[in-house]
Amino acid sequence: xxxxxxxxxxxxxxxxxxxxxxxxxxxxxxxxxxxxxxxxxxxxxxxxxxxxxxxxxxxxxxxxxxxxxxxxxxxxxxxxxxxxxxxxxxxxxxxxxxxxxxxxxxxxxxxxxxxxxxxxxxxxxxxxxxxxxxxxxxxxxxxxxxxxxxxxxxxxxxxxxxxxxxxxxxxxxxxxxxxxxxxxxxxxxxxxxxxxxxxxxxxxxxxxxxxxxxxxxxxxxxxxxxxxxxxxxxxxxxxxxxxxxxxxxxxxxxxxxxxxxxxxxxxxxxxxxxxxxxxxxxxxxxxxxxxxxxxxxxxxxxxxx
Length: 305
Ligand code: 13P
Ligand code: SF4
What we know:
- By secondary structure, the chain is of the alpha/beta class.
- Helices cover 43% and strands 16% of the residues.
- The protein is built from 14 helices and twelve strands.
- It is globular.
- The relative contact order is 0.17.
- The model has no long low-confidence stretch (mean pLDDT 97).
C-alpha cells in the first residue's frame, strides 16, 4: 500500500542532500504540500524561483511554470515531476500565432499572461499573472494594449480600467470555462449566505456573481481573513482542498466538480521522488528565447512582483 509519510520522508532527506527546493502551485494534489517548501500562486512562485539559492528547483506545477523558473534561474537545474503536464491555455498560442496577432495591431504593446510558452513570452513587452494583470496593464500608461493568451483575464482587466482598451487573443482555460452560471446559481441556492470567490479566468457572466475576484492566493487570503464562515470557491479544486485543511471552522464549497485541471493533478509524491533521485525531466530553454522572455518577466516583477 502507498505510504505517504514514508515517501515524504525520503523526499525531504534527498532534498537536503541535493540542496533542492520544491515549489508547489495551489492547484496541485494536496499531498504535495507534505514536501513543498513553498505553495502559492504563479506570481509568488516566479518570485521565489528568481530568489532561491538552491541548486535544484523541483517545480510541482505545469510546464510553463517550470519553464518560467528556468528562465529566471538559468544556472539552476529545474525539474518537472511529470514532463507531459502542460497547460491547455498555454498551448492555444505559439510563436507564429503571437506574431500574427501582433502584425494585426502593429505598434501596440503586448501583455502576455505567464500561462504561455517561453517563445510566446519572448515576443511580449511585459508579462503578467492573474494576481497583477490590472496593475501591469495600468503601468504601461497607454490607451490600448494587446493581451494574450487569455481572453477572459484580458476582459476582466478591461472592465477594471476605464481608460484602457484591451484587445484580447481568443485563448482560454478549459477548466475555468467549464464553470457555468447555472453551477454558481445552484450553489448560491444551497448556500445563500456564502461569499462567492472567483478566479478571473472564468467567463465574465460567472465573475458577475463574485464578492471577490482574484488569483488563487488572493482567494485563499480573502477567505482566511474574512469574518464570513461559508464560501463558494469558483476556481480549481486544489484551492478548496487547502482552505478546508487550513480553516476547519469554515465551510468551502467547490462550485462544480468539473473544476479540476487534469494537468495540475498529474504530479504525485512518487513523481517528485523520482525526479529528485534521477534528476530527469530537466527543463531547458534556448538561450536567445530565454534572454528575451526574461526581460518580459523581469519587467513584470519590477512593476509588481
Ligand atoms: P494563479 O495565477 O492564480 O496562480 O493561477 C494560475 C492558473 O493556472 C490558473 O488557472
Ligand atoms: Fe492552464 Fe487552466 Fe490548468 Fe491553469 S487551470 S494550468 S490555466 S489549464
